[in-house]
Amino acid sequence: MGAPKQKWTSQEETALKAGVLKHGTGKWRTILSDPEFTSILKSRSNVDLKDKWRNISVTAMYGSRKKAKLALKRTPSSHDDDNATALTIVAIANGAQHISPLPPALSCAPPRDFEGLFSSVDKMILEAIANFNRHLGPDGKSILLYVEERHNMQPDMKRLVTSRLKHLVNVGTIVKIKHRYRICRNGAEQS
Amino acid sequence: MGAPKQKWTSQEETALKAGVLKHGTGKWRTILSDPEFTSILKSRSNVDLKDKWRNISVTAMYGSRKKAKLALKRTPSSHDDDNATALTIVAIANGAQHISPLPPALSCAPPRDFEGLFSSVDKMILEAIANFNRHLGPDGKSILLYVEERHNMQPDMKRLVTSRLKHLVNVGTIVKIKHRYRICRNGAEQS
DNA sequence: CGGTAGGGATAGGGTTCT
DNA sequence: TAGAACCCTATCCCTACC
């Protein structure tokens, strides 16, 4: 009869993002218990946090969970980098059309100077990994969030970051171990 | 292109109502899986059931979804019972204007004998709860449906039932727990 | 038992068709 | 134009698996 559907406030959402930045994804109970966030999120459960984070990240990446599933079906698993550049260009094209103010960290590079744009994004990614305060390194979503928060990245640009992240793994600049990224010291590392 | 707009047959609608009576509202997939209804409703999805039920109940209560929204805006949230009597009288007034044949269960009470009318409706509500064959008790819409089906209540009178339901909760005759109603045995129950 | 991941269901706003 | 049918997706729920 009533409407038991508690919409997330922007304050709660901010707290959740900060929590993920601090503790990483998958640490929902930890985030909830952190005195920095517990009061803001007191009406949420760990499962709520997990669901909301899924919603946030999947929306930013694909637009919706349904589209995400379809996209993942079209790209069953690998092909991680074959079309990365294509994806990137599509992202840039979309971004150029939709983004009103170019994010400051990017505006230093001319919109069509792909090389410059790439290196700018790459630097942000490396910075995100370097500044991550946990031993295992951040996962992809934490990197995206870092770039978004620190460099005012527009949501439309997330595909670009994702693509460059894959590229940096493929060229060996960084390594990906169990869905977490770290800067590669020498050639390659085995898990 | 893809949707020739499949109108609901009265048979389907009957099955849906029976399903809600049996399983309660919000159990669309359960209703769909019930062997008693699955063949009749085989061309409908759980979402279709939900949407149709919204049309049925909201139409009965307010006339249309648009009017429902306006009505709910006027009564933002609580005030659940302050104006219950007022609403009731409005409903009766509307009913007196629009209802052609007074429902049998009500016609025993003179149209303006509010006390008699109330106790008659109250009895129907208690009967609905008593006869509900699930432990948690029916929700508001199931009660409305029960009264409509068993006592030939006209749709225009639903507001009256709703108001009396709220009243019975407020005076402690029945308790409302998680949007479901049950008859109160002693004083109060805690969840 | 407590926690997480993931699939799936529901609620409610929005859209299309008639 | 209103109302019925349908779509979209944030939120919530359930279950398997540690």
TrEMBL record, chains A, B:
Q: In the record, which residues are listed under signal peptide?
A: none
Q: Where is the HTH myb-type domain?
A: 1-61
Domain Myb-like: from-to ranges: 5-57
* Main location (coarse class): nucleus
Q: Which residues form the H15 domain?
A: 117-185
Q: What keywords were assigned to this record?
A: Chromosome, Coiled coil, DNA-binding, Nucleus
Q: Say if the entry is tagged with keyword DNA-binding.
A: yes
Q: Where in the cell is it found?
A: Chromosome; Nucleus, Nucleolus
DNA-binding as a keyword? yes
**Protein name stated in the entry:** MYB transcription factor
Parent-record interval covered:
1 to 191 of 295
